[in-house]
Write a structure and sequence with these properties.
heterodimer; A: 786 residues; alpha+beta; Aldehyde Oxidoreductase, domain 4; 3 domains; 7-stranded mixed β-sheet; 6-stranded mixed β-sheet; 21 helices; globular; B: 158 residues; Ubiquitin-like (UB roll); DNA polymerase, domain 1; 2 domains; 6 helices
Chain lengths: 786, 158
C-alpha cells in the first residue's frame, strides 16, 4: 500500500492505483442499546513487507512502518456508536495536543458515514491496557496508522443503518442512499440516523464485511476544514487540565533542586511552611518538596519560602563545554579516509545545544489516589505507559487506575512522558488528598525534558563535479525513549530489516528516521550516544525527542554540506540538488519552492536565500527562505531580554504528504513547524553551567516571537496520486532549520558551526535565582497596561 | 479575610481572599474563570492577558488588593459582550482564519490584539507590521502567521 510513496522499481499496487478492485474489510456489529460497530485498529495499512536491498534502512522501512507493524499483532477494537439524537460517538485512542487530529478524525468518520461533521463527536479514550502499543501518539504516525480502521468502522455503521432502513422502508439496501445523516429511498421517503439508531442495534456480536468508498467520491476528506474546537478556543471554553474543577483537587506545586535532576534530602522549615496562608499540605516526593494550597499563587509563595537540603544531580560538575568534550571523545571515526590527490574533501562539523521541549501549557496533572483506586486527569500521549507508572507508584493493579486523557496545550515531545503524572500521584499518595499539580514555568527548562546536545559531522568527497562519498556521524547525549518507543521497536524486532540487528534502541530509531535522499556514492549515516560511566539510563539528563527526534540537527548538518558540495562543483544549489536527488517527489517539491520563491533572484548585500529538502514520514518537504542580516535588522532593540538578530523575512515551503485529510490543518502544521525551524537555527537553546540550566522563562528561552516572524510565509501542498496519508506534525521543522542555516551561511559569508546561532553570543538575560527555584510574582502589572 | 470587590465581565464581584494574591489566581482558583491561562506567572508569556478598564493587563502581576471596586476586569469570557453580535470581531477573525492550534495561548492573544488595535487607534492610525512585531504573547505552536492575518481582519471589523 505504501509503494506509491516510494521510488523503487517494484511498481505500485495496481489494484488500488487503478481504483477498480477495492479491498473488502472485516469488522463487527457489537451488542448495544443503539447501533454499535467496531473495527480492528490493526487494519492499518500493512507496512512495507518486502525489504529490498538498499543503502539505507529508512528508505525502505521507516519509523511509520515500525510503529504500524508493531500495532498489528496486539491491535484491538475501536468502536463507533450511533446515538438516538443522530450523532455518532467515537473514542479515539490518540491524544489531541493541538495538531488537529480530533478534526481530521471527525472528517474521516463524516466522510465514510455520510454524516455532517458537527454530528461526529470524537473524544479521547482513557488509557486502555488492551490496546498495548496502539495508544501512543508519536512520530507523526496518527493519521497513517488510524486512517483505514476509522474508515472501516464508519463504513460498517453506514451499511448497518442502510440495512435497518431497508427493512423499515420495504426495499433493499442497495436502492437507498445516505446523505447528511439521513437515509432516503427513490420515492423520497427519509429516515434519520437517529431514528435508526435503535432499529439497527444488535443483541449479539456479528462479524460483517464492508467495502470502502472510492477516494474519487470523497466529499469531506481533502477539503479544507476549520478546527472543530476553534469556537471553544477563542471564547475561553476549551478546557485544559488545570481548568478542570475536580472536587478537592487543590493547587499543588513542587520546590525543585538548584541542579538538574538533584534530589531533596529534607525540608528544614516544615512547620513554618505549613502555617503559610492557604497552605493545606506539605510532602516530600522523589523530585522535590510538594506543597498544596488554596491557590497556585500561595503555592509559589510557599515554594519560595522553603529551606531545603538538596543532593546534587549527577551532572552537577558539568557544563556545556565538558559535555561537548565528552561528545567529541565519543565520536565515531569516518570510514572513508581523506582522499589524496584530485578528489576534494568537504567537511562539516556542527554542535547543537540543549533545547527545551516545553509547551506553553506547563506540565500539569490531577491525581486522586485512594487506597483502592487512583484517578488521573492529564494531557498525556502515552496513557498506558502512564497508567503503569501510577500502578507502580501506588501498588495498585493497572485496572484500578483510570487515566483520563485531557486535551493538551501543546506537546512537542514533552507529553510523551508521564513526569507530571508520576509527581501528582506521589503527591496525592503522600498527602492523602486529591491534587492539581502544575509545574512553574521556571521548572520546565531547568528540570523538564530536553532535546539532547549533539554534534553532527559530515565528510563528503567530490571529484570532477561528481560526489563520491557522503558520511555523517551524529553523536548525542542519550535520548530517553522510555515512554513506549522502546517497546514498540522491540516488539517488531523480528520483522525489522537485518541491518538493525545489532543496533541499540536509539540507533534503531535513528536508522528508521534518517534518510539522505541523494545519489552521493558511498552513503553512510551513524548515531552514537553517550552515557556517563556508572550512570543508569536517563539519570543524568531528562531528555526526549522534540518535534522530531534527530532530523532537524542531522538535516541541518547534511544540507549545509550539500551547499558546500554545490559550491565545489560550481553549481547553483537548486540545480545541484536536482542533479543528485533520487526521488521524483523530492525533486518536485524542490522545483516548486524554487519557482514560487524565485530562487536565484538578486539579493541585497547581507541578505540571502537558502534552500533545503527533507524526506521523512512517507512524505517530503522543500523550503526556501530569505534572511535579512543587515545591521539595522540584526540590531533592532525591542527591550531587555528580547533577542532580535537576523530575521527570516520570507519562507516558501512545499510538502508532498501523500493523501491529505485536511489541507487547512496541514498548512497550520507547516506554518508552526516553520516557526520551530527558525528558532532551532537562530535563537532557542538551553545553556548548561555547573549542573544548572540557566533558562527559566520565555524571555530566556528564545522560541520564535512575533518580531522574528517572516512577513511572508507560503505553504504549497503538492497534488499527489498517493492514497496513503503521510505525517505532518514534524515535517516542516528539519527542512526549515536547514534552509535557514544555509541562508545564514550565505548572507554572512561564514561557516556556522554552533546552533542556534544565539547560543554562543553573550547571554541575553540575567539568570533567575536557583534558590529559591522560582521567581517572585510581580506586583507592577497595573503600570504596564496598554 | 479581606473582601475584594471589582467588576468582572460586567458583574460586580466580591470575593474573600488575601490582598496579595495575584488576580490570575483569584480568577482561576477562587472564581473558576479559567479563560486567562498561566504560562509563566511573571508577565512574560502574556497567556493571561485580560483587560482592565478597556486596556490590556496581565493578572499574574497584579495583587487583587490593588483593584478598586469600580475597576472593570474583562477576561476572554466577557469579551463578546463588549461588542455587538454573538462574538467580538477579533474572535470571529480567529475562527475564520482557523488560528488556534492547541489554543492555550489564544485567549491572551485575542485580548492583546483587541487592546493593541484600540491603542493604535487612539494614536490616530491603523495597525502596521511594526505594531504586530511588538506583540509579546508567545505561541509555542507557532500560529504567528495566522495571528497577524487575523488581527488585520479583526481590526477592519472593529
Amino acid at each position: 500500500m505504501t509503494n506509491s510513496f516510494r521510488h523503487e522499481p517494484d511498481g505500485p499496487d495496481t489494484a488500488d492505483a487503478a481504483g477498480l478492485q477495492r479491498r473488502t474489510f472485516m469488522g463487527w456489529v457489537l451488542a448495544g442499546a443503539t447501533l454499535t460497530v467496531a473495527a480492528d485498529l490493526g487494519l492499518a495499512q500493512k507496512a512495507e513487507a518486502v525489504v529490498p536491498s538498499g543503502p539505507q534502512v529508512a528508505d525502505l522501512y521507516d519509523l511509520e512502518d515500525a510503529q504500524t507493524d508493531s500495532a498489528l499483532p496486539t491491535s484491538q477494537l475501536i468502536t463507533i456508536v450511533i446515538n438516538e439524537d443522530g450523532t455518532a460517538s467515537f473514542e479515539m485512542p490518540r491524544t489531541e495536543v493541538g495538531q488537529g487530529i480530533i478534526t481530521s478524525t471527525s472528517m474521516i468518520i463524516a466522510e465514510e458515514l455520510d454524516l455532517p461533521i458537527d454530528k461526529v463527536k470524537v473524544t479521547m479514550a482513557k488509557a486502555r491496557q488492551e490496546l498495548a502499543f496502539n495508544q501512543l501518539t508519536a512520530g507523526s504516525n496518527t493519521t497513517f496508522s488510524t486512517y483505514t480502521p476509522f474508515r472501516v468502522a464508519a463504513a460498517i455503521a453506514r451499511q448497518q443503518l442502510l440495512e435497518a432502513a431497508a427493512i423499515l422502508l420495504g426495499t433493499q439496501a442497495d436502492r437507498l442512499i445516505t446523505t447528511g445523516g439521513v437515509v432516503r429511498d427513490t420515492l423520497g421517503n427519509e429516515i434519520t440516523y437517529g431514528d435508526l439508531a435503535i432499529e439497527a442495534a444488535k443483541q449479539v456480536v456479528e462479524a460483517v464485511e464492508v467495502v470502502l468508498r472510492g477516494e474519487e467520491k470523497f466529499r469531506v476528506i481533502g477539503k479544507p476544514q476549520n478546527r472543530l474546537d476553534s469556537r471553544d478556543a477563542v471564547t475561553g471554553k476549551k478546557k485544559f487540565t488545570t481548568d478542570l474543577q475536580i472536587k478537592n483537587a487543590l493547587p499543588t506545586m513542587v520546590c525543585r533542586p538548584p541542579t538538574h535532576l538533584g534530589k531533596p534530602v529534607k525540608l528544614l522549615n516544615t512547620s513554618a511552611i505549613s502555617r503559610m496562608p492557604g497552605v493545606t499540605h506539605v510532602a516530600q516526593i522523589p523530585t522535590g518538596i510538594a506543597v498544596r494550597a488554596k491557590t497556585f499563587g500561595q503555592c509559589i509563595d510557599a515554594v519560595r519560602a522553603m529551606k531545603v537540603q538538596w543532593e546534587d544531580g549527577s551532572a552537577a560538575n558539568e557544563s556545556d563545554d565538558t559535555i561537548l568534550e565528552e561528545l567529541r571523545a565519543a565520536e565515531i571515526p569516518m570510514l572513508v579516509p581523506e582522499v589524496p590527490g584530485l578528489a576534494k574533501t568537504i567537511e562539516t562539523d556542527c554542535v547543537f545545544a540543549f533545547k527545551s521541549s516545553a509547551a506553553l501549557e506547563p506540565y500539569a496533572a490531577i491525581a486522586d489516589v485512594r487506597s483502592d483506586k487512583a484517578t488521573i486527569w492529564a494531557g498525556i500521549k502515552s496513557p498506558i505507559f502512564a497508567q503503569n507508572q501510577v500502578a507502580a507508584i501506588t501498588g495498585l493493579p493497572p485496572t484500578a487506575v483510570t487515566v483520563n486523557v485531557i486535551t493538551g496545550g501543546g506537546s512537542f515531545g514533552h507529553k510523551l512522558f508521564a513526569d507530571h503524572i508520576k509527581e501528582a500521584t506521589e503527591a496525592s499518595k503522600a498527602m492523602g488528598v486529591p491534587v492539581k499539580l502544575m509545574w512553574h514555568r521556571a521548572d520546565e527548562p531547568r528540570q523538564g525534558r530536553l532535546h539532547p546536545m549533539a554534534t553532527s559531522r559530515v565528510r563528503a568527497t567530490i571529484l570532477a563535479g561528481e560526489v563520491l562519498s557522503f558520511e555523517q556521524r551524529h553523536t548525542s547525549v542519550l535520548t530517553d525513549f522510555e515512554h513506549g518507543f522502546g517497546e514498540i521497536l522491540t516488539n517488531v524486532a523480528d520483522e525489522l530489516p537485518s541491518q538493525l540487528g545489532n543496533y541499540t534502541l536509539s540507533q534503531s530509531v535513528f536508522a528508521l528516521t534518517q534518510q539522505m535522499p541523494y545519489n552521493f556514492g558511498v552513503l553512510d549515516q551513524l548515531l552514537n550516544e553517550t552515557v556517563a560511566p556508572g550512570d543508569a539510563l536517563s539519570e543524568r539528563f531528562s531528555t526526549g525527542s522534540m518535534r522530531n527526534i534527530y532530523s532537524p540537527d542531522v538535516c541541518t548538518a547534511a544540507e549545509l554540506t550539500v551547499d558546500k558540495l554545490a559550491k565545489a562543483a560550481k553549481m547553483d544549489p537548486v540545480k545541484f540538488r536536482l542533479k543528485y536527488l533520487k526521488d521524483p517527489r523530492v525533486k518536485a517539491v524542490l522545483r516548486k519552492v524554487a519557482e514560487e520563491g524565485n530562487f536565484g533572484r538578486k539579493m541585497a548585500p547581507n541578505t540571502a536565500q537558502g534552500v533545503a529538502i527533507h524526506k521523512e514520514y512517507k512524505g517530503c518537504t522543500a523550503v526556501l527562505v530569505e534572511i535579512d542580516n543587515r545591521p539595522a535588522t540584526v540590531n533592532r532593540d525591542l527591550g531587555p531580554e528580547t533577542v532580535t538578530g537576523p530575521r527570516v523575512t520570507k519562507v516558501v515551503l512545499a510538502i508532498d504528504a501523500g493523501l491529505v485529510i485536511n489541507p487547512r490543518g496541514l498548512e497550520a502544521q507547516m506554518q508552526g513547524g516553520i516557526m520551530d525551524g527558525i528558532a532551532l537555527t537562530l535563537t532557542s537553546s538551553n545553556h548548561f553551567e555547573n549542573g544548572r540550566f540557566l533558562e527559566a522563562s520565555w524571555d530566556n528561552y528564545f522560541y520564535t516571537r512575533q518580531w522574528n516572524v517572516p512577513f511572508d510565509v507560503e505553504v504549497h501542498i503538492m497534488d499527489t496520486d498517493s492514497k496513503t496519508p503521510g505525517g505532518g506534525g514534524e515535517a516542516a521543522v528539519g527542512s526549515t532549520a536547514a534552509a535557514v542555516a544555509c541562508a545564514y551561511a550565505r548572507a554572512t559569508g561564514t561557516n556556522p558551526t554552533y546552533f542556534p546561532i544565539q547560543h554562543e553570543k553573550p547571554l541575553a538575560f540575567k539568570p533567575k535565582s536557583f534558590v529559591p527555584p522560582v521567581p517572585p510574582s510581580p506586583t507592577n502589572g497595573l503600570s504596564r497596561t496598554y | 479575610m479581606p473582601k475584594q470587590t471589582f467588576i468582572l465581565n460586567g458583574k460586580t464581584t466580591t470575593v474573600n481572599v488575601a490582598d496579595d494574591v495575584r488576580v490570575l489566581w483569584v480568577l482561576r482558583d477562587v472564581l473558576g474563570v479559567t479563560g486567562p491561562k498561566y504560562g509563566c506567572g511573571i508577565n512574560v508569556c502574556k497567556a493571561c492577558t485580560s483587560h482592565i478598564n478597556g486596556k490590556a493587563f496581565n493578572p499574574c502581576s497584579v495583587r487583587v488588593g490593588d483593584l478598586k471596586p469600580k475597576d472593570r476586569v474583562t477576561t476572554i469570557e466577557g469579551l463578546a459582550k463588549t461588542a455587538p453580535g454573538d462574538l467580538h470581531p477579533m474572535q470571529q477573525a480567529w475562527i475564520d482564519l482557523d488560528v488556534a492550534q492547541c489554543g492555550y495561548c489564544q485567549p491572551g492573544q485575542i485580548m492583546a490584539a483587541v487592546a493593541l488595535v484600540k491603542k493604535v487607534r487612539r494614536e490616530g492610525r491603523e495597525i502596521e507590521e511594526s505594531d504586530l512585531d511588538s506583540i509579546r504573547n508567545i505561541c509555542r505552536c507557532g500560529t504567528y502567521v495566522r495571528i497577524r492575518e487575523a488581527i488585520q481582519q479583526g481590526a477592519s471589523q472593529m
